[in-house]
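Q: I'm building a small set of examples for a reading group on sequence design. Run inverse folding on the following structure and report the sequence directly after it, with nothing in between.
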């Protein structure tokens, strides 16, 4: 799956995971803006437009589920994808109920990310 260059919001509190995901996406031509927590992500979306958001579910203070609700509540409609290490059965249901259109379990590969982004864009009518 080849995507045109996208503006990606990555919300991930683990710096190593953030660096890996950023590297996987920038190597494919995408621009990644990293926010280390939900409040930083809210500040980022106030100042620029994103094509897709990748949200960790387990973030300090404002978790990924609450962040998705905040983004949707303030009118942001870009597709959101959960990227989590959670193994529980409810994680995906909670993420989708919060407005996320994709769900990935860590560790992820570049191809997994690209496929999930393409599916999320198609599901929200924003296919490239």
């Amino acid at each position: 799956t080849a995507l045109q260059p996208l503006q990606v919001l990555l919300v991930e509190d683990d710096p190593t995971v953030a660096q890996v995901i950023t590297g996987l996406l920038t190597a494919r031509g995408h621009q990644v803006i990293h926010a280390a927590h939900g409040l930083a992500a809210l500040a980022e979306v106030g100042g620029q437009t994103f094509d897709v958001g990748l949200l960790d579910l387990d973030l300090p203070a404002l978790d990924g589920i609450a962040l998705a609700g905040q983004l949707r509540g303030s009118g942001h409609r870009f597709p959101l994808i959960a990227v989590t290490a959670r193994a529980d059965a409810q994680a995906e249901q909670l993420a989708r109920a919060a407005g996320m259109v994709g769900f990935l379990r860590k560790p992820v590969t570049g191809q997994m990310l690209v496929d999930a982004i393409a599916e999320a864009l198609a599901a929200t009518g924003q296919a490239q």
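The chain has a mean pLDDT of 94.
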